[in-house]
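Project outcomes to date are best conveyed with an example. Our students and postdoctoral researchers have been running inverse folding experiments weekly, and each run begins with a structure described purely in tokens. The record below, which covers 416 residues, was selected by the lab manager from last quarter's runs and is presented without edits.
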């Protein structure tokens, strides 16, 4: 099973926007660019909303069946581990192996020593095409990387083999996720992480490293743009080198997590992709849920009232809702408007505040981040929320499609 060159993870909290999301992918096809949709939803989201991995498969199958022509697509078991993988095995054909909890925990000393011996040939000055500077590999540095990452990759290997035993080796896509950790991985770290991935026999087609800067939920990248561009270029070079050196899949590519709404880095990413003739997997999630709220607000009347209710409850339960996302949000509580203020807003004001348009004076990233993590409020509304989505689909769907195509797919995969 092969993941095509360009792919996008289209997260959908409530499983109602599959057709609208697919419409964005089909618009790209009309421009001659094939972007493969990958429906993704994490165990955490399922547990909060009360859905199951099988529901994601149902949504994806239905959306594609409604299209005018066949579309290659996948269903991602997003950020799973051995304790959560079982319900995902049957309906999924893409597995994101999350081993963040194991990073920093040392493997057995004998295993570390063996890894160093197996890769001793790299010690010294290493040149990788596409990276200007010569990489200085010392035994101490190699050992430090092994101590920090080897056990995590061994855990990924155990998880991969568990899935393989159930589905068969060639019947799913494998991604290794290393992004949910405090420190970014440089090119040397990534090189030996990939060496460990190959050593475990994991045919990874995508890997999600940790970059410098902030990848907060639902808002733009915050960080040193020049540094990010250098890191992205170097990682592209390392992947091309490692795929050959360690006999990994030749279509191995980077995966960018929390990639939605990172508009400022799309241009340098696209430049790097062209430079290396490389693919990319971009994971989006909450941006679609926010477009649902925008669509409800656009509809006015009871739709706008419901969106305002979600905001009021999210603000009242802010600590509860932000807790699981504390490392990927930066909300200035004192800048959030009161429910009384929001209740006075018309549709245009609510939409302008929430929609991710940095050129708009009313845009408020604090409101956007709070509502991004506030989907639990809508989930608790149950049928009332779902009925509102159905009633106002005519307002919601164009926002979902336009956001995914105009703000994500077009600038990243097609160009201006």
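After processing, the design step wrote out the following sequence:
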């Amino acid at each position: 099973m092969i993941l095509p060159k360009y792919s996008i993870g289209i997260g959908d909290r409530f499983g109602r926007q599959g057709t609208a999301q697919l419409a964005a992918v089909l618009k790209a096809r009309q421009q001659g660019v094939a972007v493969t949709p990958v429906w993704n939803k994490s165990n955490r989201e399922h547990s909060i909303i009360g859905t199951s991995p099988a529901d994601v498969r149902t949504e994806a199958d239905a959306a594609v069946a409604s299209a005018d022509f066949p579309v290659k697509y996948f269903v991602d078991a997003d950020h799973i581990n051995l304790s959560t993988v079982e319900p995902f095995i049957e309906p999924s054909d893409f597995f994101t192996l999350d081993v963040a909890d194991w990073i920093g925990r040392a493997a057995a000393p004998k295993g570390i020593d063996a890894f160093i011996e197996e890769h001793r040939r790299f010690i010294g000055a290493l040149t990788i095409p596409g990276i200007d500077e010569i990489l200085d590999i010392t035994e101490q540095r190699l050992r430090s990387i092994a101590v920090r990452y080897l056990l995590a990759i061994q855990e990924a290997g155990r998880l991969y083999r568990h899935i393989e035993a159930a589905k068969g080796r060639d019947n799913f896509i494998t991604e290794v996720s290393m992004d949910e950790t405090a420190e970014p991985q440089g090119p040397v770290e990534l090189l030996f992480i990939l060496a460990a991935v190959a050593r475990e026999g994991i045919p990874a087609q995508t890997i999600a490293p940790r970059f410098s800067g902030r990848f907060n939920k639902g808002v733009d990248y915050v960080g040193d743009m020049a540094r990010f561009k250098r890191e992205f270029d170097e990682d592209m070079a390392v992947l091309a080198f490692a795929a050959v050196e360690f006999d990994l899949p030749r279509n191995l590519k980077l995966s960018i997590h929390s990639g939605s709404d990172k508009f400022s880095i799309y241009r340098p990413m696209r430049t790097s992709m062209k430079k290396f003739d490389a693919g990319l997997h971009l994971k989006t999630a909450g941006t679609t849920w926010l477009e649902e709220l925008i669509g409800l607000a656009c509809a006015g009347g009871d739709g706008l009232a419901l969106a305002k209710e979600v905001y009021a409850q999210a603000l009242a339960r802010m600590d509860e809702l932000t807790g699981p996302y504390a490392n990927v949000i930066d909300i200035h509580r004192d800048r959030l408007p009161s429910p009384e203020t929001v209740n006075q807003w018309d549709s245009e004001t609510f939409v302008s505040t929430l929609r991710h348009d940095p050129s708009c004076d009313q845009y408020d990233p604090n409101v956007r981040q709070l509502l991004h993590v506030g989907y639990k409020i809508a989930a608790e509304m149950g049928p009332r929320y779902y009925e509102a989505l159905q009633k106002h689909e005519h307002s919601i769907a164009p926002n979902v499609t336009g956001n995914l195509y105009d703000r994500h797919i077009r600038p990243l995969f097609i160009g201006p």
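The chain has two domains: 6-286+406-414, 289-402. The first helix runs from residue 18 to 30. The training component of this project remains on track.
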